[in-house]
Structure formats: C-alpha cells, structure tokens
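Quick start: read one record
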Amino acid sequence: MVKSSITETLRNALETLISQPLRIIRAVTFYIGAFFTILFTLIGISVGVYFYTLPDIDAMQFDDLVSLAKQHVSHELKDKKKQYKWSPIAKMNRDLIYTVVMAEDSNFFQHNGINYDALLGSLAENLKRKEFAYGASTITQQVAKNLFLTKEKSLLRKIREYSITKMIERRFTKNQILEVYLNIAELGSD
C-alpha cells in the first residue's frame, strides 16, 4: 500500500513535470501561429489595397494620357497666367528633343522605365547622407510621378512610382511617353 502510494505520487509528479512543458510549448505554438496568421493577413490586405489603388493604365488610350497631362499642366499654371498649348512630338524640334533626352535620361531608349545603375548609385548616396538628397528618376518615372502621384518623398511613393512606371512602359511607346514628358516638364526658371 505504501509502495503503491509512493508509486502513484511519483507518477503524478512525473506527469506534472512532463505536462507543464507540453502546455508551455502548446501555448507558445498557439501564440506564434496567431501572430503569423495576423501578420500575413495584414500583409495580404496591404498588398491588395496597394494594387487596388494603382491607376488602371492598361485601360488607358494615349488620348486619355494626353488629357490627364493637359489637366496637370493647367493646374500647375493656374496662378501663373501663362499660355499653354500641347505640342505633338512630330512638330517639336529634333535637336531640342535629343538635348532634353541626353540631359534628363540619356538611356531612355535603352531601358524599360527604370535605370537600375542610377537607382543604386542614388540609393547609396542617400543612405550615406541619411536623406532623400539624390534622385535617379527616368523620364518615364517623372511622367508617372507628375501625373499619378504626389510630390512627397517616401519609400511607399517610390514603390508606387516603380509600379506605375512599369505599366506606362508596357502600355505606351517611347515616343508617346516622351511627348507627354516634353509637354509637362518644367523647363526654365518660371
């Protein structure tokens, strides 16, 4: 009887020692699983909202892009009392076009909207300075920023700019993108 009681007590103690870590492991596993479930759900929602709020550039025609550009310029010139007239690229001076392309984005006709070499150089310089001091925007990125985004400097805006730039490059020709850029670019001091 005493032996049975001691055996029973030892068995209970052993079960308690074994069950405590198992309960802790189950609890930790539950909380880790819940954390990652919530985390991935929030990431999924964020990605969904991000893509849902991008403009539908694939549905745009060139005339839609021109109309949007004209609205942008009219808004920018609203208080400046300046005359504005859209110029088709075919009527622009070729030397002016080449000069602007060479000054703004000399690899414009070679890249697909993003100049990764310039982007990495700019990123390195900005990290060194700990500020957004240098940009590496291509002509297409400037069109994307001016027509579809705000002027704020943030990582989220830059990511949106990247996505919109890729869509513009897929949808429109280089000459169409250049025509829009040349009609919305702010050249000169005023």
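The chain has a mean pLDDT of 85.
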